[in-house]
Q: What sequence folds into this?
């Protein structure tokens, strides 16, 4: 008997230390605790083995006792049974099965007729009967004890069994008896873990005539300590699994692509949207981030672009089966309490947005067709009126050579004017595809200044440039961007008929720590006459111009080209202080098909 008690005590001690170490992280922080735990287990196993040898060599007469055999069958107490019970207890994670197992175990140890278990609710304001061997017709529909009930308060304070027979009518005993009566219980065990009352286990009347034995009560109380730890772990496990299931469902329903890696750079999550955007046949979970190609791996690698969330960056992917796919990426560190946190990457597919923007631009163009037609008719009619007038006078002045020369000159100039109007209109309406290639915008600006050098000299306009050295390349259609720069600079020259100053600056902007700039900005400023405030909203409308001989298509076309490139054009102007035009180009990387790995 002594050998069995010692073996169980050492074993339970080892289990208790193991549970505490697992919860508090002691195995990692204190090798000494691990040694003590190991010693407890070894000693327990040795004593269990010794008990088995001793039991095997015991006289057969001891096993012939019918009463003893019956008691062992009802009172789980052999070392092997203790081991089997503990393994089964720890293995259970389903709370319903665990509670049933616990109640049956303790009622068996105590020889109780029935039992129940009460656990604290989510708010901690009450302890509900979550499993009972009694039916609802006895206990009612989900009975509970308030957290301030005398029975609960005594169990939490004393942390020892409460036995009905031991209540002698002392202070508060009557209220405690009422609590026992509501549970039809003769005995209640507190389930306490780290000073916190997790719940109660109640037991009904003992089926043996002598009632509860002190040994059975002490044994049940020892097991209650282990049970409290197992139930707490099971509740945490179930809560974690529930949260994981909910997060997995939400993750899969997101229209935003999500890819996450752990501290080693291994992909731990990749939702449906991310797989569809990147055209992945199967999930890359469990594989290195480099599987997704160097561009994405740079965002997902350990350390990545720092621990702070990055500014969203736009890229263009050449995805097999989809072609060019514009995306916006946003990366951030997760698990910041770790020395080396993992990373999460959000991927937004911009294809539909770009298509909608294109449709909107098309709708706006269609809406201005009537305006274009009216303005075009007006611009063409003026030269035609001049030609018609001189044509009507020509028969009367056939002998006037000077008139004929003048008529020929006017007709030629007016026809050329009509041709220029048509050319500009065709250029404005040209829907051709962009021929993108990496270019340095400052080089295009220098080429435009060279082309317009004669006009700059003629108008006595001085030029100052401030181009950032080692400027990044921007993926653009060089011809169209050069035309934008030429239109803007030409407007500035026209705004300074008596001479002035033209300043052109260009530099990268929108810097992110560790990732470089997000945009490239060009500013063109002049000291010209400026634009009145009431006219500024109309400067991008087709055929709107402030010049006598202008056509009003240059800025409208410039805005169209900048929108095609995903950029913008802005104008700041006022009479007397000149005009500043700002062109902003997005620094979108292009990730080629060769940079993708087959998954």
A:
């Amino acid at each position: 008997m002594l050998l069995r008690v010692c073996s169980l005590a050492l074993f339970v001690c080892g289990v208790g230390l193991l549970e505490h170490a697992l919860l508090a992280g002691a195995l990692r922080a204190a090798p000494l605790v691990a040694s003590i735990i190991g010693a407890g287990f070894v000693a327990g196993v040795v004593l269990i083995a010794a008990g088995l040898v001793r039991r095997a060599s015991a006289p057969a007469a001891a096993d012939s006792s019918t009463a003893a055999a019956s008691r062992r069958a009802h009172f789980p107490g052999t070392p092997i049974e203790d081991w089997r019970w503990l393994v089964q207890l720890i293995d259970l994670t389903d709370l319903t099965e665990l509670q049933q197992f616990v109640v049956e175990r303790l009622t068996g140890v105590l020889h109780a007729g029935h039992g129940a278990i009460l656990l604290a609710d989510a708010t901690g304001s009450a302890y509900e009967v979550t499993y009972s061997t009694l039916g609802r017709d006895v206990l009612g529909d989900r009975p509970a004890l308030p957290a301030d009930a005398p029975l609960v308060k005594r169990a939490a304070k004393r942390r020892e069994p409460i036995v009905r027979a031991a209540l002698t009518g002392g202070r508060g005993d009557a209220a405690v008896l009422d609590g026992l009566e509501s549970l039809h219980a003769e005995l209640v065990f507190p389930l306490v873990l780290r000073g916190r009352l997790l719940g109660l286990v109640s037991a009904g009347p003992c089926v043996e005539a002598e009632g509860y034995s002190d040994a059975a009560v002490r044994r049940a109380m020892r097991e209650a300590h282990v049970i409290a730890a197992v139930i707490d772990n099971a509740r945490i496990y179930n809560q974690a699994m529930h949260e994981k299931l909910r997060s997995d469902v939400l993750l899969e329903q997101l229209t935003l692509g999500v890819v996450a890696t752990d501290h080693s750079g291994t992909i731990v999550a990749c939702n449906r949207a991310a797989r569809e955007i990147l055209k992945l046949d199967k999930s890359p979970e469990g594989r290195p981030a480099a599987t997704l190609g160097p561009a994405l791996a740079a965002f997902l690698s350990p350390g990545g672009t720092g621990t702070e969330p990055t500014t969203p960056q736009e890229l263009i992917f050449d995805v097999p089966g989809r072609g060019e796919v514009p995306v916006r990426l946003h990366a951030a560190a997760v698990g910041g309490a770790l020395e080396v946190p993992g990373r999460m990457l959000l991927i937004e597919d911009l294809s539909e947005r770009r298509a909608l923007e294109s449709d909107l631009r098309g709708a706006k163009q269609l809406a201005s067709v009537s305006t274009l037609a009216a303005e075009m008719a007006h611009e063409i009619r003026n030269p035609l009126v001049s030609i018609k007038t001189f044509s009507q006078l020509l028969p009367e002045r056939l002998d006037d050579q000077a008139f004929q020369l003048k008529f020929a000159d006017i007709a030629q100039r007016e026809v050329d004017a009509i041709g220029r109007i048509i050319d500009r209109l065709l250029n404005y309406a040209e829907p051709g595809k962009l021929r993108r290639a990496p270019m340095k915008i400052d080089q295009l600006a220098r080429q435009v200044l060279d082309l317009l050098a004669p006009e700059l000299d003629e108008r006595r306009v001085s030029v100052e440039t401030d181009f950032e050295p080692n400027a990044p390349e921007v993926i653009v259609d060089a011809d169209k961007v050069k035309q934008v720069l030429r239109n803007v600079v030409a407007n500035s020259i026209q705004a300074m008929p008596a001479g002035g100053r033209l300043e052109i600056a260009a530099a990268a902007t929108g810097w992110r720590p560790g990732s470089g700039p997000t945009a490239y900005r060009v500013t063109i400023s002049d000291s010209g006459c400026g634009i009145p405030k009431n006219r500024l909203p109309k400067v991008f409308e087709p055929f709107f111009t402030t010049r006598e001989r202008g056509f009003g298509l240059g800025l409208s076309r410039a805005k169209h080209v900048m929108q095609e490139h995903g950029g913008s054009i802005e104008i700041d102007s006022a009479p007397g202080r000149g005009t500043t035009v700002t062109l902003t180009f997005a620094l979108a990387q292009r990730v080629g098909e060769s940079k993708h790995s087959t998954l």
Q: What stands out?
A: Residues 214-253 form the longest helix (40 residues). The domain at 92-253 is CATH 3.30.450.40 (Beta-Lactamase). Residues 1-75, 305-309, 336-340, 590-599 have pLDDT under 50 and may be disordered. The two ends are 63 Å apart (CA to CA).
